[in-house]
Amino acid sequence: MKLGLEGKVVFITGGSKGIGLACARAFAEEGARVSIASRSEENLEAARRILANEKFDVVTVRGDLSVAKDADNAARQTEKLLGPIDILINSAGAARRFPWEKLDAEAWQQGMNAKYFPYIYAMDAVRPGMIERKRGSVVNIIGMGGKAATTMHMPGGAANAALMLVTAGWATALGKFGIRVNAINPGATLTERLQEALRLDADKRGITMAEALTKSEENIPLGRSAKPEEVAAVTLFLASDQASYVTGAVIPMDGGRTAII
Q: Is there a contact between 186 and 19 (Cβ–Cβ < 8 Å)?
């Protein structure tokens, strides 16, 4: 299947680690021109070296995407180096997990600043150019925490739920300009983020992290956690010409764990 991604300019927020890095690699393999953004210069350099060792060249741009000005600057820098942005992949940030007993104003604020606003501001930054060119694709990698409430992830889950609504809303508003907006909700995925969740669960239960992983995967119909590359593959499809009539979709990727429609 030809995805039609050759030469496309792809801006990936949170592209230095985890699912974002897997997406950067996948788009580069398809011949796209890739820019990855992160607030950490150290993480960006590490990602650049990893991809360079695999013979992929990417542009790196630093910025705190929870700040609107930084998000706009990152997009403008990408376009200065690569050209107009065709595709935005939002994979930046992850809200910290808090036991419900420790939730306070700071925790709720952190949840929105870590996940909601970075996605919103990145979309704000690319939207005018996409409207002007009457083309574009946005894929928001969100998370199942916005579909099923857990007492350990309420601030982040609230941000995720809000991002799903925004995804559907922008898809409706921007379709007439040839812009598609979709989302993916990964469940447990083998990244540093999962390690944090396993540590908290293990501490709470008084078990090892390996035992916590086993117990978690017992509840997944497919019997295992996802690989970042599997999420990246669906991201490629949604961003590509092969999904030209798909917009406003929110696709679950949790191995069937959350039985909802």
A: yes
35 near 73, Cβ under 8 Å? Answer: no
The whole-number pLDDT of residue 260 equals: 79
Q: Which residues does residue 184 pair with via DSSP β-bridges, in sequence order?
A: 141, 251
Q: Nearest CA to 90 among 118, 127, 129, 124? A: 118
* Closest to 23 measured CA to CA, from 230, 214, 169: 230
Residue 5's identity, in one-letter code, is: L
Matching residue, tokens 């593959």: 233
Residue with tokens 């929870």: 66
Token readout for 37 is 């953004």
CA nearest neighbour of 180 among 243, 125, 252, 120: 243
The Cα–Cα gap between 9 and 126 comes to 12
Lowest model confidence (mean pLDDT) among 61-70, 203-212, 233-242: 203-212
Predicted local confidence at residue 107, as pLDDT:
83
pLDDT number for residue 65: 94
If you count them, how many residues does the chain have? Answer: 261
Give percent of the chain with pLDDT exceeding 90.
Answer: 69
Backbone angles phi, psi at 111, to 5 degrees: -60, -45
Q: Which residues have a Cβ under 8 Å from the Cβ of 188 and sit 6 or more positions away?
A: 194, 197, 216, 217, 220, 225, 226, 254, 255, 257
Two structure tokens written together for 89: 């992949």
Q: Which residues on adjacent β-strands are paired with residue 181?
A: 138
User: Which has more pLDDT, 80 or 225?
Assistant: 80
